[in-house]
Design brief:
This protein is of the alpha/beta class and 335 residues long. It has 8 helices and 10 strands. It has 2 domains: 62 residues, no CATH class; 247 residues, Zn-dependent exopeptidases (Aminopeptidase, 3-Layer(aba) Sandwich). The chain is 31% helix and 19% strand. The longest helix is centred in the C-terminal third of the chain and has 21 residues.
């Protein structure tokens, strides 16, 4: 098949079933063979900055089945190295205006797929679960970041359908000494016609809409087990961390604006609802710039269909990654 982004796929005579191999590679063209190509409707791709790696996304009209070559069990998440700093000591330093001990180098990004496990998040009219779509977007963003920024380590707060307490998510980011924390969500509203995309940073809500969105996302806190150590934290450190977020207010706001700009490029027909602020629990306690991205309204039938599309999820992930890349390159001028 001749790859052209978003174009129909032209089939080339293939070899073994479902196996894909490169027949011809040049500077501006790559031809692949695939027996299943007639069932593939479109192609998208991303390339690493040096051009050495290309991630190809095939979109099929119907689900494809592939022969299983082997199974060694689910991937094991590497254990994080213990932080040399305690939450309380960092929070105290930041609240007093001292610089973060790890934000000099941009080398760790934490992506937080919203909800998960016993918390489905919002549910669309056709039954689409927010927790599934946020995970899929986060996994795509992780792979794209690995291509675009190979020197940056990407950590997911969850990589499967598991529940992670809200308070534990920023604690993971702090433990990993992250430079950015990005929480990925799908929006919802009582009005089915409500639509578009918006990005939040942590501060007091200024509008009723912002308060409504944060109340919806914060409802997951009711599922936290008070006895779960991951849901608990030093009360003093949590309070100080809230205070310390003011240090990153401008950076978080700037990152949110960059995300909105990139989402607007990827989804020009979508409604740009702008950058907003609200008191999201999941952003509290972060010792780095942090934002929450509402990619589309899962409660809107048309946008639910978009979220079910691999092409849209890929574009949402690409917008987030492009924003992170742009923020990292220009962060020296963002204070």
């Amino acid at each position: 098949m001749d790859i052209a982004c978003g174009a129909p796929v032209e089939s080339v005579e293939g070899s073994a079933p479902y196996w894909v191999d490169s027949l011809w590679v040049s500077d501006d063209r790559t031809v692949l063979s695939c027996l299943a190509a007639p069932r593939v409707t479109a192609v998208d791709y991303a390339t690493s900055p040096d051009g050495s790696v290309t991630l190809v996304m095939l979109r099929a009209a119907d689900p494809l089945s592939f022969p299983e070559l082997g199974w060694a069990g689910p991937p094991v998440e590497p254990e994080a190295a213990g932080s040399a700093y305690s939450d309380s000591s960092i929070a105290q330093a930041l609240s007093q205006g001292e610089p973060s001990p790890w934000l000099e180098d941009f080398d760790v990004v934490v992506l937080d797929p919203g909800h998960g496990g016993r918390d489905p998040g919002a549910v669309g009219p056709r039954g689409t679960l927010e927790k599934d779509r946020t995970l899929e977007i986060a996994l795509l963003a992780r792979d794209l970041l690995a291509l675009r920024m190979p020197n940056v380590r990407v950590v997911l707060t969850r990589s499967d359908d598991s529940y992670v307490p809200l308070a534990a998510r920023t604690r993971i980011a702090n433990r990993e000494q992250a430079d950015l924390f990005v929480s990925i969500h799908c929006n919802a509203a009582v009005r089915r016609e409500a639509g578009g995309f918006e990005t939040f940073f942590l501060s007091l809500a200024r509008t009723d809409d912002a308060r409504a969105v944060s109340a919806m996302e914060n409802a997951a806190a009711e599922l936290d087990d008070p006895s779960d150590p991951m849901a608990q934290g030093d009360a003093l450190s949590f309070l100080l961390a809230d205070m310390s977020q003011s240090v990153f207010l401008h950076q978080s706001s700037a990152l949110a604006s960059i995300v909105q700009q990139n989402l607007s490029r990827e989804w020009p027909d979508g409604c740009d609802r702008g950058v907003k602020q609200a008191g999201f629990y999941v952003l509290r306690g972060a010792f780095m710039p942090s934002i929450l991205v509402e990619t589309a309204f899962i409660s809107n039938p048309r946008e639910e269909a978009l979220l079910e599309s691999l092409d849209f999820r890929f574009r949402a992930a690409r917008a987030i990654v492009a924003a992170i890349e742009e923020f990292a390159m220009g962060r020296g001028s963002i204070r």
